[in-house]
Amino acid sequence: MKVKAMGAVCVMLLVTASAMGELQIQEGKYQITEYATYSQTGLSLPKYMAFDDEGNLYITHTYSSSVWKVTPSGTPSEFLPGVPAAGIAWGGGTAYGDYLYMTEMTDAWNGKLLKVTKSGGVTTINSFADPYHTPGGLTLDRVGNYGGMLYMTTNSQDRAAKFDTEGTLSQFSLFPGWYDGGGPGNVVFAPVGDYGGLMYMPVGYDGSNASRGGIFTLDTQGQAQLFSDDVPYAMRLALDPTGAFGGDLFATGGPIADSNLRLYQVDPNGSAAVFATSDDEEIWSIVFGPDGDLYVAEASRTGSTTTIYHVTPEPATLSLLALGSLALMRRRRGR
């Protein structure tokens, strides 16, 4: 790092600026603040997150049957109690309208697509069963390379499907296939550029199917190709929309299913490096906000508390940098 020449004092300050609570950023050029913390009855396990057009953040909790909301000021509240939602996406600015869309795991063999107003009004626009039960991530194609539709992954007969604006479901891809011990997470859509305008899908399995995991690209016909096996147990994806985080792809996951979940930064060549870890908790879900910053949801596998962190691509303050440079200059002058 170039900052090394600035002296040990400044390096220490940079690292401190990149640590907040349990979450630890591996590089010193990012700052972390605790955005919101809340507790609920039952397992926390934050599944997926999405922002609306007013900057409100929504977090789904399938296992505790609740959806939480965090306002732009960082105030959390339970938004939809009793709803075991999984995937979530905001439709504003598209033909899907100013609604939240959520997939609900009704039971082990049935699911729903919900259309939700910002005031919490819920309408079921599709009910589905085998082979689309156990819904996973939900993503709206805002790039437009895949028809501008709403895409869902499933975690039983692992595959991807799509919904039109009326909620009509159709199959998109049979990938990754019906295997025990895991499945795909949310897909993301890349604009034409370093990531080729493709759909990216994280896949993770345990046990004998662990080698089937990684991050894959899917073309417009649903054909898959391995993009990176540096994150063998990949769970969630988010793509930097502004370039503030290098324009890179970010993934949660680990080397194996039972490992502590961490956050990776994946470059356009598929090479992944650990971006953030957590000492005692695990990194479950990630999303980039309308401000271009990264939001990270952290919780333990057995706890009931969720913490959302706000990661900004800002270096340590200029005053700290200046302090390190001044100390180095004085040391050189004294030689």
What would your notes on this structure say?
By secondary structure, the protein is mostly beta strands. The chain has two domains: 1-29 and 315-335, no CATH class; 39-302, YVTN repeat-like/Quinoprotein amine dehydrogenase (Methylamine Dehydrogenase, Chain H), CATH 2.130.10.10. Helix content is 8%, strand content 45%. The protein contains two helices and 27 strands. The strands form six sheets. Strands 1-2-24-23-22-21 form a six-stranded antiparallel β-sheet. Strands 16, 17, 18, 19 and 20 form a five-stranded antiparallel β-sheet that branches. A four-stranded antiparallel β-sheet has the order 3-27-26-25, with no helix packed on it. Helix 1 runs antiparallel to helix 2 (318-333). The two termini are 24 Å apart. Mean pLDDT is 87; it is low at 1-17 and 316-335.
Mean pLDDT: 87
Backbone structural class:
mainly beta
Strand content: over 45%
Question: Based on DSSP secondary structure assignment, what is the total number of beta strands?
Answer: 27
Instruction: Give the assembly state of these chains.
Output: single chain
The parts where pLDDT drops under 50 for at least 5 residues are 1-17, 316-335
What's the tally of helices?
Answer: 2
Just name the CATH architecture of the largest domain.
7 Propeller
Helix content: under 10%
Q: The CATH topology of the largest domain, please?
A: Methylamine Dehydrogenase, Chain H
Shape, principal axes of CA atoms: globular
Any idea how many domains?
2
* Beginning-to-end CA distance, first to last residue: 24 Å
Q: What's the story with the biggest beta sheet?
A: 6 strands, antiparallel
Task: Give the radius of gyration.
Answer: 20 Å
What is the top-level CATH class of the largest domain?
Answer: Mainly Beta
Query: What's the CATH H-level superfamily name of the largest domain?
Result: YVTN repeat-like/Quinoprotein amine dehydrogenase
What is the H-and-E element order? Answer: HEEEEEEEEEEEEEEEEEEEEEEEEEEEH
